[in-house]
């Protein structure tokens, strides 16, 4: 975004509440924080949420079909050559982009997912402000992605007519959904916002909608497939959620309440998400445990100390499950009837903060859980996956620490075959 447009952020001291912060004179149409926040909330926790989940359920069937095609019709003894991570960075990103932005962006730029992950791998360069000269690939990927979003906007504007919007007043084949249509109006009204600025904003949204969850979905499935005993327990939970009346053949609302899957989800985020949340101290100096943060300063809160705090989390009998290792059962409590219940209660809410907190807490958290667990469920019920994992497990790449879910440090060779008898419809 050019400097003139991005100054809108610097000048916006009106907060994200309906009422602007006292003393702010920012005009309503320039309240960029408020406009963004409320469009996100409507899309991800308000009226846009169910239609979005339904679209994802439909699109995950395309994900399954593409992998079935990859496998071919015969069960074969394949060598573990491909990279399991790429199944997520390519195929799941495609699925998620279609669910959020509709089909047109990918029709215009089928290579978007590949460059999206080149950009993501280049995040450390942007964070350290490495000049373009020394990080050409990352900068070129970013520029080309924003250019594709702008091209998508131009094409959607030309082709869209109100009659294409579905009965629920949400989906259309060009903008994808109401969220992106509304953003054209709201963001288009901001002073000094041109087509490039709006494309940058939408690219930022697309990044937030995909980066953390695709990586988290990878880690969930990685943990499940690398441990055969865990896989068989997960298979049982997934089988209990089979429902032929659902688009994906799985009752997603039931799936996200299953104790073991919930524990795997929460543990994955505890271990893999290392994110800095930023807050600006606006009203008065802030006193935290006698540390004074002067007004107008920015505070970064890291999720890592809380997620690694031995006083907060169970480490199992005799500390057999240290916090730097994945333990699927960390959030399960044995019940008297022999079953286990999932437990992440209010007493832990300040310690489990992958989604941040307060009014700025991630609005995509409900969708993220559905996306990651449904992806895992489809893989578990339809495919046999064999991963080649180094002893001691795959290390994480800490170079993007602070931006959210970490990547694996190396490739994860794998083979995949369709299951002989199984699978969702
Ligand atoms: C594992 C997955 C995810 C993680 C760890 C994550 C984490 C976060 C965090 C830490 C924040 C900032 C919260 C704060 O400042 O307190 C955030 C904001 C946000 N997230 Fe997520 N997120 C994930 C998935 C998603 C998904 C799937 C979506 C949308 C589909 C999404 C949309 C957003 C948006 C729009 C914001 C900004 C909200 C605002 O400024 O009003 N996130 N996320």
- Please estimate the helix content: 40-55%
What kind of sheet is the major sheet? 3 strands, antiparallel
Tally of structural domains: 1
- Tally of strands: 12
Spatial arrangement of strands, main beta sheet: 1-12-8
What is the CATH fold-level name? Cytochrome p450
Short description:
With 425 residues, the chain is mainly α. 48% of the residues lie in helices and 11% in strands. It has a single domain (3-418), classed as Cytochrome p450 (Orthogonal Bundle), CATH 1.10.630.10.
Structure description:
With 425 residues, the chain is mainly alpha-helical. The chain has a single domain (3-418), classed as Orthogonal Bundle (Cytochrome p450). It is 48% helix and 11% strand. The protein contains 15 helices and twelve strands. The strands form five sheets. The protein has a three-stranded antiparallel sheet. A hairpin with a 2-residue loop joins strand 3 (286-288) and strand 4 (291-293). Helix 3 (49-71) runs antiparallel to helix 4 (84-101) and helix 3 packs parallel to helix 15 (365-382). The longest helix is centred in the middle third of the chain and has 32 residues, at 195-226. The radius of gyration is 22 Å and the shape is globular. The model has no long low-confidence stretch (mean pLDDT 94). The structure holds protoporphyrin IX containing FE (HEM). Protoporphyrin IX containing FE is lined by residues 37, 40, 44, 208-209, 212-213, 216, 269, 273, 275, 277, 354-357, 360-364, 367-368, 404-405.
């Amino acid at each position: 975004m050019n400097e003139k447009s991005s100054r809108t952020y610097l000048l916006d001291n009106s907060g994200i509440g309906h009422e602007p912060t006292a003393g702010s004179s920012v005009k309503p149409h320039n309240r960029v924080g408020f406009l963004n926040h409320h469009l996100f909330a409507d899309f991800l926790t308000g009226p846009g949420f169910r239609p979005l989940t339904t679209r994802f359920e439909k699109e995950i069937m395309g994900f399954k079909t593409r992998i079935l095609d990859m496998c071919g019709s015969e069960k074969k003894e394949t060598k573990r050559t491909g990279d399991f991570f790429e199944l997520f960075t390519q195929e799941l990103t495609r699925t998620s982009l279609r669910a959020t932005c509709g089909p047109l962006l990918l029709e215009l730029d089928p290579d978007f997912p590949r460059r999206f992950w080149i950009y993501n791998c280049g995040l450390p360069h942007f964070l350290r402000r490495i000049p373009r000269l020394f990080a050409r690939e990352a900068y070129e990927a970013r520029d080309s992605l924003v250019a594709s979003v702008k091209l998508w906007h131009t094409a959607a504007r030309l082709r869209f007519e109100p009659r294409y919007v579905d009965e629920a007043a949400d989906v259309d084949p060009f903008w994808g959904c109401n969220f992106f249509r509304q953003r054209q109006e709201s963001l288009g009204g901001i002073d000094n916002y041109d087509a490039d600025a709006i494309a940058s904003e939408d690219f930022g949204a697309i990044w937030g909608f995909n980066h953390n969850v695709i990586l988290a979905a990878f880690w969930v499935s990685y943990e499940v497939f690398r441990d055969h005993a865990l896989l068989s327990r997960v298979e049982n939970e997934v089988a209990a959620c089979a429902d032929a009346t659902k688009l994906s053949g799985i009752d997603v609302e039931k799936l996200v309440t299953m104790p073991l899957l919930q524990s795997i989800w929460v543990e994955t985020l505890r271990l893999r998400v290392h994110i800095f949340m930023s807050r600006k101290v606006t009203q008065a100096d802030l006193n935290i445990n006698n540390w004074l943060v002067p007004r107008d300063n920015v505070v970064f809160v890291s999720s890592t100390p809380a997620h690694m705090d031995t006083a907060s989390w169970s480490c199992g009998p005799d500390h057999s499950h240290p916090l730097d290792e994945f333990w699927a059962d960390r959030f399960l409590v044995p019940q008297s009837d022999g079953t286990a219940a999932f437990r992440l209660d209010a007493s832990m809410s300040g310690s489990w903060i992958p989604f941040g907190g307060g009014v700025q807490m991630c609005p995509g958290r409900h969708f993220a859980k559905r996306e990651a667990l449904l992806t895992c469920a489809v893989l578990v019920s339809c495919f046999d996956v064999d991963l080649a994992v180094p002893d001691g497990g795959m290390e994480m790449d800490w170079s993007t620490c602070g931006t959210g879910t970490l990547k694996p440090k190396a490739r994860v060779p794998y083979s995949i075959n369709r299951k002989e008898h199984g699978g969702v419809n």
